[in-house]
Structures are given as structure tokens and as C-alpha cells.
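re: ur question from earlier - yeah i can do the single chain one, its not a big deal. heres the input i used so u can compare w yours
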Amino acid sequence: MENSQSTIIKEYSDLIDKLPGVIKSSIVQSGDAITEIHVLSDMSRSPKQIARDIQSAILVQFNTTIDHKLISIAQIPSENSRKIKDRLVFEEISIAKSKNRSTAAVSLCDGESTFSGEASALNDSVDVNKMICQATLNAVTNFIEPDMSLSPIDVKLFDLTEGKAVAVCIAVKFRNSVERYLGSSFVGDDAGYAVVKATLDALNRRISSI
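and the output i got, formated as C-alpha cells:
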């Protein structure tokens, strides 16, 4: 039985090692149960993407469900991963209004995958620009690790000598601390697009370290 279980664990590990971005994996077990999955990967894919790949692959191949909390991922740069964009770029924004609510939907791209986020509010209390900022942050959350929360503190439009600009202040809450980031963008024909750009301006330089 022990040899059989060891064989299964090796098959799990061999499967994980074949996934995109994975360099090496190690699985810890207690009895017949998997208690930890440790993965070393490059930075071509986000930890959240790799964890989802692991869950999906093991479910399809072995009909076994793995709790994402068991998966620990450490990342190191590689020559190939340096060619992959760390930065998220704007892809699409839409605003939908119903009788009582408004909803903003934002899509971002990292050069390989698309990440979407939505935010909504009651029409009688909606701050459209802040709602767009929150939708953008929700899209960013789908790209990075979930062990933090992102929320807009303030979104302000202001006049310049020539034209307008928007500034966004964002709170990033980690497990034991809170940091505030500031981003800005000039406002062209679309204020909503400028809010997305300002939000990304606040976060993009920090996404790879987050």
C-alpha cells in the first residue's frame, strides 16, 4: 500500500512538473492525505494561475480535488520570464445601467491572458469613477495572489492649465500592514479610461513585487 501511495504521489509531482512555468515540485503527505504541495516556478505565469493549473490538472487526470490552501509557490526569474510583461494593460471597459443599479466592467491583459473585474452601485449613490477604479482593482486581484485586498480611497478629477487629469489613491491591505499607492493620468475623451490608466499607474510598478 505504501509503495502504491508513493507511486501516486510521484505521478502527481510528475504531472505538476509538466505544467507551464513550473520548474520543480515537491509533495508532502500524512498517511494517505496530501498536506502540502511546494512548487518552484519561473515568473511567466502568476502564482494564482499556476495554482489553478495544478488543481485542474490533478482533477482531470486523477479525479482528485486539491484545496488551493495546500499549494505553496515560490518564483524565481528566468531568461524566458523576463520577456513576459509584468505590467497589466487596458483592454476594455463598459458601463451598464439598469433601473436601480450601475455596473462597471473592466478587462486587463498581461500579454498572455485577460483578467476581468466588475463593480456595481445603486444609481442614487453611485460615484462612477470610484466604481470604475474598484472594477479595475477587482481585475488586478484576479491576476495577483489573493492574500491581500485592494480598495479605492479616493478618485479626483482636477483641472490643469491645459486639459484635465485624474488622481487615484489606493489602499493595499496585506496580512499585517496597509500601504497606500497613488496614480495619475491625463483625461482625454474618455474619463473612465483615464481612471483605469491612473489605477494601473498606481499599481503596475509594484505588481511584480506584490
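The first helix runs from residue 2 to 17. not sure if urs matches, ping me
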